[in-house]
Amino acid sequence: MRIRTLLIAACLLVAAVANAFFEDVCLPRRKGQGTLTWCIKPTCPSRTDPNRACPEQLVDFLNVMPGRSMVHADSTYFIAQALGYRPDVAYWIAAYNEVTDYTQYVPIDQCGVQATSSNSGKNYITAQFNGFQRTNNSTDGPLDHYVVNFSPNGQGTDVHGAMGVQSLYPLYYPRPGYPLRIDDTYQKTLANIRQWAMIPTNDPGVLCTVGLLNSDGTGCLNGLTITGTVPAFTKAGAPGPPINAASGKKILNLDANTGAIDYYEKLQSYLDDTGKTTGTLWLSPSPGPVPLQVARIGIWLHVMQDTSSHSTYCGDDAPTPPGGCDPGTFMSIVGDQVKVSFGNSCATGPHLAGHVQETGTNTNPLPLRDYVALNNTVDELINFGNQVALKYPGWIVNPELLPPDVVGGKSRQGFSADDLKATLVGKIASGTPYSRAEVYQSGVVTLPLQQTNALDRLHAMNAALGNYSQTVQKQSANPSAFRAFQPMPGNSFLKDDTSVCWK
Fold first, then answer.
1. Pick from 151, 284, 350, 464: CA 20 to 30 A from residue 492's CA?
2. Distance between CA atoms of residues 275 and 115, nearest Å
3. Per-residue burial over 182-201, b = 16 or more CB atoms within 10 Å of its CB, e = otherwise
4. Is residue 486 part of a domain?
């Protein structure tokens, strides 16, 4: 009895570091706080533990102001242009990346003005759909952010065993795997969304809840209920938001009032409907609605970026031996249910605490997960560029910047994917790759994220984008034909420029 009591006590005392990507540039909560500011308080007045969210931060989370994540949005936008994408294509990739969190992305300019249907930002607002939303527990939305691996043996020991998916680099299993392929035995959600995102045509493809395909892979597995509870605290069985969704085709939008469902095949119609969005590829000679392929890759990048982040605590939470305290994080089929188990480390409290560790680190490097997620973003935009974007005239305006592959081929400017990741995302300053202990020195994209003030962080990112554009233009074999980069709509390379703000 004493041994069991000690075991339980030890379970409750384990501290877990949380990770994710959340809004870090938001409208101020009170007048006079500034143009743009923090989204969750960076410090806890009532608690000093950096790995636990305090009550003040929980209140901030429940009442977060409009904003965006600079990892999901600004960094993705920067990387896309650095790989040759036209600015409008890069923008919509970043915008639909953010839809995955918010249901609709409504941009805010550098003056702190939010786009509306009646100002000049109206044409940069996305369509709205909630099937991927991080808080929509009536769909599998939470599981597009807390990506949970599938356990064929139903116990989680195969997922987390010596040959299973491991920690910060889950996409790389099995070796060699990513960036050429993603395992579809354990990593069903990731493998399914990725293949959908890389379809070069308007074919709707096959997209299933939590990636569960039927036996021949031609459609979705139907007739099962997906259940689980994301714990609010780091304790097995702790209460939290319940998930209750049906297996089958991925839901694009679920009307909370009527119960009406639109499935993922309707995404094209949402993009084409001017009543839902007036967004176009505005730099195209004949501007038309945002293409289906662009929205799909934006959604995939978000899921991939969150997986690179959450896996350091949630995806790597293995079940302890029988009699231990941690059930581990995995999902399995039991009868007519897909049961999702969340381990002790995968909880809302430490999750929120991790949000404030992602940016604003000053002279310290960012958390390792930031570099991993953005390195993966470079890889995926190279893959998409070659497999999809180059098939559409004008989507890639500086083809000399795009390497032909992610495994050693070099761009016309002489840079491989690894070269570009070292420049844009950062170089390893100490430790070895894939050790889970490497420390990075920030690159062109990540160095601005170290700025502690939200508005300074935004201005630094905009300035870095302009400077990098000039650098690669000088390296061009034909500088006069090079298409200079553009800042995000509503932004400028100059911090005091108000002419770009919504009118």
1. 284
2. 16
3. bbbbbbbbbbbbbbbbbbee
4. no
Closest CA to 331 of 147, 163, 165: 147
Smallest CA-to-CA distance from 88 within 281, 279, 272, 278 is with 281
Quick one: tokens of 47?
A: 């608690």
Q: Which long-range contacts (CB under 8 A, 24 or more apart) does 255-259 make?
A: 256/138
Structure tokens, 486 = 């553009």
Using the Cα atoms of residue 253, residue 259, residue 260 and residue 264 in order, give the sign of their dihedral. positive
| 261 contacts 245 by C-beta, under 8 angstroms | no
pLDDT of 119-174, one tens digit each?
999 999 999 999 999 888 889 988 998 888 899 999 988 887 666 665 567 677 66
Lowest mean per-residue pLDDT among 54-63, 274-283, 286-295, 307-316: 307-316
Domain tally for the chain?
Answer: 1
Choose among 451, 492, 487: nearest CA to 25. Answer: 451
Stated pTM of the model: 0.92
Cβ atoms 305, 376 nearer than 8 A: yes
Scanning 260-343, the segments in alpha helix (DSSP H) are: 267-272, 292-310
- CA nearest neighbour of 337 among 223, 239, 250: 223
Domain membership of residue 352 as a residue range: 2-481
Q: Alpha-carbon torsion 267, 80, 355, 490, what sign?
A: negative
Mode of pairing for the β-strands spanning 439-442 and 426-430: antiparallel
In a domain, 375, yes or no: yes
Q: What is the rounded distance in angstroms from the CA atom of residue 9 to the CA atom of residue 11?
A: 5
Residue with tokens 């909880």: 347
pLDDT of residue 323: 66
Question: What number of H helices and E strands is found in the chain?
Answer: 12, 10
Instruction: Answer whether residue 502 is part of any domain.
Output: no
The size of the chain, in residues, is 503
Cβ atoms 350, 17 nearer than 8 A = yes
In degrees rounded to 5, what are phi and psi of residue 82?
-65, -15
Report the range out of 112-126, 235-249, 326-340 with the highest average pLDDT.
112-126
CA distance 144 to 307: 8
Dist. CA 268–CA 347, nearest whole Å? 35
Instruction: Let me know: does 115 contact 106? Beta carbons within 8 Å.
Output: yes
How does DSSP assign 393-416, residue by residue? TTSBS-GGGS-S-SSS---TTS--
User: Looking at 30-39, 331-340, 479-488, which range is the least confident one?
Assistant: 30-39
